[in-house]
Amino acid sequence: MVRISEFQTLVEDEFGASYASTLVRDHVLSALGDRTAGEALVAGVAPRTVWLALCDDLDVPPERRLGIDRAPLPPGPD
Prior knowledge:
Elements: H1 4-15, H2 17-26, E1 28-29, E2 35-36, H3 37-42, H4 47-57
Helix pairs in contact: 1-2, 1-4
């Protein structure tokens, strides 16, 4: 399951922060009923479904669809 915050991170990591917002707002996806990613999310389409539709439409290779590896956060003070 992908949450909207994770969706945003995936899009920003793959396309860059400024282009990510443009894609989500303006790029129409036929697989989502000719809606933008943003419109699909507002309509209740699962973020994972929206992410995979973007990946398919923009030819994101399968090995990059899970996002980038991140180092774990250091433990905080007790």
